[in-house]
Fold this sequence. Notes:
By secondary structure, this protein is mainly alpha-helical. The protein has one domain (15-218, 245-452): MFS general substrate transporter like domains (Growth Hormone, Chain: A, Up-down Bundle), CATH 1.20.1250.20. It is 82% helix and 0% strand. The radius of gyration is 22 Å and the shape is globular. It holds the Pfam family MFS_1.
Amino acid sequence: METKVSAVEKSAIRKVAFRLVPFVALMFFINFLDRTAISFAGPNGMSKDLGLTAAQFGFAAGVFFIGYVLLEIPSNLALHKYGARRWLARIMVTWGIVALLFTWVSNVEGLYVLRFLLGVAEAGFFPGAILYLSMWVPARHRSHILALFYLAQPLTIVIGAPVAALLIEAHGTFGLEGWRVMFAGVALPAIVVGVIAWFYLADSPADAKWLTPAERNWLTAELTAEHKEKQAGHAAAHSVTAAAAALKNSRVWLLSVVYFGLIYGLYALAFFLPTIIGGFEGQFGTKFNVFQKGLITAIPYLPAAIALFLWSRDATARGVRSWHVGAPALLGALSIPLALYMNSPAATVAAITVTACSIFSALPTFWSIPSRFLSGAAAAAGIALINTIGNAAGFIAPFVTGAIKDATGSYQMPMFVVGALMLVSSVVIFAIGAGARQENELAQQMRGKVIAE
């Protein structure tokens, strides 16, 4: 009997990994490319054509997250209510339409408005995708599944940067500047894939026709049992009450602080790396064409994808521990400020590669932690809150980075800010881990006393 159950478990998880995760990862790939397309457009004509300072560029990059944050929690609760298939598909088509409008932006005010609306359109996608995938596999498989999903983020730059460069080099197509061609080229796939998602995705394992009856039954039973275990010892609560409780949970807020530091580093790097590389000519006297700059931008992210995969495998094998997040965050905190003190383009990119590996190793293992103590509506609200606060860093990071660069004339001081916030993330997650260990030890002691009595 045990062998039969193990075979069903193995086949069910494999099918989720190969049938579902790649498609959701493709959606995430397009999502991250659309929100960071401005980073390629800026140093390749957009900033000059629209007359942007570094601070204005940073504000345009970051204002996306104001709209995103405002609707993050409502959007995720709507996904929980109406189902992931409809809601994720709706989000994707909507942001694709808004992203396409960047092709015709003509001034800085219009750029601000479109970036804000893009955030409104994308709100809820990422935490919704995390919640969606978490609803398909038991906790012991979650870090592996989320790692496969998260591979799309660094690969977005590995593949997207050269593709964006090629689109930019298609200057004159339809009478458009290269950066406008690029915006159109990365927006259209969102609309197409969003329509496909409506028909391709299933809301739950019970609705998946590509699972056998045995696989559907096993997944449904495992997930139901897991949900009941999380609720054990508590009275059944209305979803609104459960969501409110999650929003008051101190551990949720501490995890939000951790995520804030990681996301600050991610977006400071994502939005300004192409600009930093564009400055190599003035700093080191080296010259690169647009496509070469795209390839250099991609360099840190391929090792980051490999590090993400291997680190997540280790986390899955050992069980996620606080050091799976804290150690990479600490390494990133030390490496990013040093990057801009290197004496060559190669050394600078090497240091940035260490930072990219650190950030992407920490992120997928981080997301397996909230689902340990949250489920149902509480998970929807808690995960959305963590992502909302983290994405506030998405607004603050590019704006502060650009403003400090304008004030100091270099990117060195902004990168020290990145390092400091990632250091805070490392300290807090280690503290959370220490607290959890103390709770477990106390619980074991209490159980021992009960048995003895």
